[in-house]
Design goal:
The complex is a heterodimer. Chain A is mainly alpha-helical. Chain A is built from eleven helices and two strands, in the order ααααββααααααα. Chain B has a domain at 28-235. By secondary structure, chain B is mainly α. In chain B, α4 packs antiparallel against α10. Classes of the chains: A mainly alpha, B mainly alpha.
């Protein structure tokens, strides 16, 4: 039996990472609830966010202003998303596309391959590390690396901002309405194409924030988005597609289960426990914890 | 189809197979080696197309299933001293079993869950292979004993030619059978298929398990050919390559994946020195293709054929006229 300290250490670390995976899952589920498509290139926007953070910290702002880097990266990824959406995704809603899911899947996967290869071509396969000036935190008996604690805090702020935006602004109201009914909102005079663009931008910006915050923890390289995206998808299956409170709880559950299994079983297989949890859950509740019990056919 | 036309088709296919089987006698080792990898991707792309193009749901773990087959067969031979042929068969069965479990878990709900769950499966499988170093030798790579004593790629070429002909023949027979029509009915209109008494969930699971099985066989055989397995083959890059092949060839067409595998793998080999730039090019090409001409190159060839070959042109015109009448 591992010691109580180690136990607590793992649980705290697991919950902290869980919050960042939740940010990723929120981005995926948000884009799905508005546009009814999965953006498979989320991990690449995470990757772009982390590269931007690296560039801003190392070449422009300096280590002291790394927190400004997070902000600038997030805004840049948002703008990039807003530019890419009309070019790549919007034709999905044109008249000529017969099978939308197929179109969206293929196009976002192609986008993912293109972005990933572009990162290889421009930056090479090297692992880079944007430094931070954070000390290690001590909480009682525990020591937590400063960048992890800050990433956790950043994730909480991002989630709070996202929630506030949805809850208290006109655009948030419009987006929630679009999630309910895409046709009805057009009869209310809202330009759904603009809303799609905004939703895609916000969704990928969430991935970009996660990337910028985790850049000093998991380092920066062309495929660094893969693991975080996988966690995001696992949370979505646990939660049920399109459910935002479910994603919050799902992130918590995933972080906890991974931490507990790592302590009790073997830390080497940390990334596998989440999938086993997902599989077990799917066999019992095929529509997730919060998913609607409907069949989309 | 008229008898005369049918004879022409059979003759054409027989000639193509004859030429393909004769390649190793004339070509260099390198050319045969590239051809083996083309045939491997023909199997993967065709079997993925069976699911995505003919049945509807997407799997994003086709490359992982191939790697699963490869690792299972190799480990059976290495650790349990099972004969290679038996190992390949067992590996194929196990791959289909994994497909059945995943399909049963996800396909009872929306089909999109299959795509998400298979993505998570592929990524998890890669990380497990890396983590289970004592068994799989992790990122170092697992050395697989070859099937034959020589390093000559020719025997493998014939094996893969036979295997891909078998696969293509099976898919051809399936999509023209009653069961193939069930699959296509599920793709075209699931509610209507359900209302006509087709158990759509069961056929989706069947399509998924069958395509996983084919990937498992191909992966197991390919593992013995390349003789070293590494987690790199489970990178999403591989899956992307399969999708690019199917899209460039033409999704939902029989010859599309074959043509696509030939084009993409051929170009990849030819432009080898460009490295990652190739995938950037293919990604952009697919985005442009999806926006402009999503039927792929098989449809393009058909259209060109119809334009330059007068009898076919007349036939096409007649077809179009009859479609307008409907």
């Amino acid at each position: 039996m591992p010691s109580a300290d180690l136990f607590l250490q793992y649980i705290v670390a697991g919950m902290m990472l869980g919050a960042l995976y939740t940010v990723m899952a929120l981005g995926i589920t948000f884009i799905y609830s508005i546009m009814k498509m999965i953006n498979w290139s989320m991990g690449e926007f995470y990757m772009i966010g982390s590269y931007l953070q690296y560039i801003f910290v190392i070449y422009v702002l300096g280590v002291k202003y790394w927190y400004l880097g997070v902000l600038v990266s997030a805004v840049s990824v948002f703008i990039l998303g807003c530019i890419l959406e009309p070019v790549v995704i919007r034709p999905m809603f044109g008249g000529f596309v017969e099978r939308r899911t197929e179109y969206a899947t293929v196009v976002t996967i192609a986008l993912m391959l293109a972005l990933r290869s572009a990162a290889y071509v421009l930056g090479g396969p090297y692992q880079r590390n944007p430094q931070t000036n954070l000390p290690r935190l001590t909480l009682g008996e525990l020591t937590i690396p400063g960048e992890r604690a800050v990433a956790f805090a950043g994730a909480i702020i991002a989630i709070a901002l996202f929630y506030g935006f949805l809850r208290f602004t006109w655009f948030g109201l419009a987006l929630r309405a679009a999630a309910q009914n895409r046709v009805a909102i057009q009869t209310a005079g809202v330009n759904i194409r603009r809303l799609d663009q905004l939703a895609f931008g916000i969704g990928v910006a969430l991935a970009g924030v996660a990337g910028a915050l985790l850049a000093p923890v998991f380092l920066v390289y062309p495929t660094n988005g893969a693991i975080t995206t996988m966690k995001g998808f696992e949370i979505i299956i646990i939660a049920g597609l399109g459910s935002i409170p479910g994603a919050l709880l799902g992130g918590l559950i995933l972080g906890l289960v991974e931490a507990l299994c790592s302590v009790l079983l073997s830390p080497g297989f940390q990334h596998a426990y989440g999938f086993l949890l997902v599989l077990a859950l799917l066999l019992v509740r095929p529509y997730g914890l919060f998913g609607e019990r409907e069949r989309e056919v | 189809m008229r008898l005369q036309q049918r004879i022409w088709y059979v003759a054409l296919v027989a000639a193509a197979v004859g030429v393909a089987a004769a390649i190793p006698w004339r070509a260099s080792d390198y050319f045969v080696h590239v051809s083996v990898s083309v045939l491997y991707y023909v199997i993967l792309a065709s079997s993925w197309n069976l699911l995505a193009g003919y049945t509807g749901p997407f799997s994003l773990a086709h490359h992982a299933f191939a790697a699963f087959g490869g690792y299972t067969a190799a480990l059976l031979v290495l650790r349990l001293a099972v004969p290679s042929i038996a190992a390949i068969l067992v590996a194929a069965m196990l791959t289909a079993g994994v497909g059945l479990v995943l399909g049963f878990a996800t396909l009872r709900m929306r089909a999109i869950y299959l795509a998400i769950a298979t993505w998570a499966f592929a990524e998890t499988f890669r990380l497990v292979i890396v983590a289970a170093y004592p068994i799989t030798r992790g990122s170092v790579g697992l050395i697989v004993p070859p099937l034959f004593a020589t390093r000559d790629p020719r025997p493998y070429y014939w094996i893969f030619l036979a295997l891909s002909l078998l696969t293509l023949g099976a898919i051809w027979l399936l999509i023209r059978s009653r069961y193939g029509l069930y699959l296509q009915a599920v793709r075209d209109d699931e509610v209507r298929a359900e209302s006509l008494g087709i158990d759509t969930t069961r056929w989706k699971i069947f399509g998924f398990a069958l395509s996983s099985l084919l990937a498992g066989v191909a992966g197991a055989c390919y593992g013995f050919y390349v003789s070293v397995l590494s987690p790199e083959t489970i990178e999403f890059y591989e899956m992307g390559k399969i999708i690019v092949m199917v899209i460039i060839g033409g999704i939902g067409t029989f010859f599309g994946p074959v043509l696509g595998a030939l084009i993409v793998q051929g170009l990849s080999e030819y432009f080898r020195e460009f490295g990652q730039l190739r995938m950037l090019f293919f990604g952009v090409a697919v985005i442009i293709l999806m926006r402009t001409y999503r039927q792929g190159s098989v449809a393009l060839i058909r259209q060109l054929w119809a334009r330059f070959y007068p009898p076919a042109k007349r036939l096409a015109l007649r077809l179009r006229a009859s479609q307008r009448a409907n």
